[in-house]
Amino acid sequence: MRGNLFAVAVDLVILTVRADRLAALLVRRGIPPFQGELALPGGFVLPHEDLLDSARRELAEETGLSLGDHHLEQLASFAAPDRDPRGRVLSVGHLALVPDLPDPEAGSDAAASAWHEVAAIGALAFDHGRILGEGIERARAKLEYTTLAATFCPPRFTVAQLRRVYEAVWGTALDPRNFQRKVTSTPGFLIPTKEMTSSGRGRPAQLFERGPATGLHPPMLRDPA
Amino acid sequence: MRGNLFAVAVDLVILTVRADRLAALLVRRGIPPFQGELALPGGFVLPHEDLLDSARRELAEETGLSLGDHHLEQLASFAAPDRDPRGRVLSVGHLALVPDLPDPEAGSDAAASAWHEVAAIGALAFDHGRILGEGIERARAKLEYTTLAATFCPPRFTVAQLRRVYEAVWGTALDPRNFQRKVTSTPGFLIPTKEMTSSGRGRPAQLFERGPATGLHPPMLRDPA
DNA sequence: CCAAAAGTGTTTATAATACACCCATGC
DNA sequence: GCATGGGTGTATTATAAACACTTTTGG
């Protein structure tokens, strides 16, 4: 082992759907480098910490989420020699999908963090723009073959809420009728409850919970606009 | 930046198809730890080197391949605190798909390396068994949605050769007639040449070259056994 | 001639799409 | 009643899969 040592960080692409728009949690940096600029939440890996544990810890610190059944996965590593002016830093990007949360409140590390609609995000510190881009791309791809979309929803949700998640992430319109049949007939996607939505215009909708499906399912439908 | 520094290595899952079997290039370790055991090719990242450059360099050293149009991509990073007895080492796994090559010859680093049929590979040094497993899984998944299978083939190949690649990687039998129509009708997959195979039993087959397709194509067919 | 592999055409099953239509609520 | 969204049924279309058949070589 030689002296070519790296600092190792984890950075998080934390996505949610708010007001029918895909949004990411970003922090405004309080210290150099890139002071005052927007960046992904993240930090250095502790001496005896595994990568996912480190990402889970950062996620909890930034969002207050204890990440019970939420989704967290490794994205990719970024280690361009000049990506950090302080020296050689390898960052392991992670992707988290969380339900719509109340705005991050003051206190702990979350003070400087806020949700930003992804369509309106400009340049970020370091190479975080690229990491964010890969996270969004991965999320879009995974919705097509997994039941992960439900992780964007609260514990109980309607089929229409779930559909709006797909529409927000993909930026397309889906046929509500075909969507309904598709998701309700995919084994393990949705667990029906006996409750219905009480308020709102139109006929009340049945409430569902996230099913246990982890793996793949036949492709989701993408209607033309 | 604190003293929690890591050594960073790249390890390579180098896959090929030899004699209709999926095979990986492995090295036998000449020094501790895990002296004498089989491991993935790899090594430490140099001070000013990017990850893919480092992987390309290791690939060239181990196989002699200059990696013109061959495939190389990052897989994932592995950093369990105890994965290397020498200390904290983060390894960035990479996946390379190469055509069937002559056996690695003595000289350079390739001396101790050899192809191993993946079905016959036992325990590997470090956590390389897991990295290999993820590489194989990724390769299997990507054949289904990309035209990557052709990177396992020599510069000119027949449809039957390409089919045997799918059959080797997936371990399934495919219908030669449906396969033919499928691959020849996928835009950008195959470039037809005017040449035919000269020898061999049966009717001569047309030779093709790798097409330019990079992205996705409709799912490949998987026939039942 | 026969066996073997290449390649084409046709039929059948399955899944995706489009869309007509009925249901249950708020106003 | 009427607008709004929830939910079901069905026709149409694309695609995958199964397989009969012709072509072209070597022996």
What does this protein structure show overall?
2 copies of one chain form a homodimer. Chain A is of the alpha+beta class and 225 residues long. The first copy, chain A, has 2 domains: 7-143, Alpha-Beta Complex (Nucleoside Triphosphate Pyrophosphohydrolase), CATH 3.90.79; 148-210, Orthogonal Bundle (Arc Repressor Mutant, subunit A), CATH 1.10.10. Chain A contains 4 helices and 9 strands; from the N terminus they run ββββαβββαααββ. The first copy, chain A, has helices at residues 51-63, 128-145, 159-170, 176-184; strands at residues 5-18, 21-28, 38-39, 42-44, 71-78, 89-97, 113-117, 190-196, 206-210. In chain A, the strands form 2 sheets. In chain A, strands 1, 2, 3, 4, 5, 6 and 7 form a 7-stranded mixed beta sheet that branches. Chain A has a two-stranded antiparallel sheet with strand order 8-9. The termini of chain A are far apart. The A-B interface holds A 1-2, 4-8, 44-51, 74, 76-77, 79-81, 86-90, 92 and B 1-2, 4-8, 44-51, 74, 76-77, 79-81, 86-90, 92. The structure holds a DNA duplex (27 and 27 nucleotides).
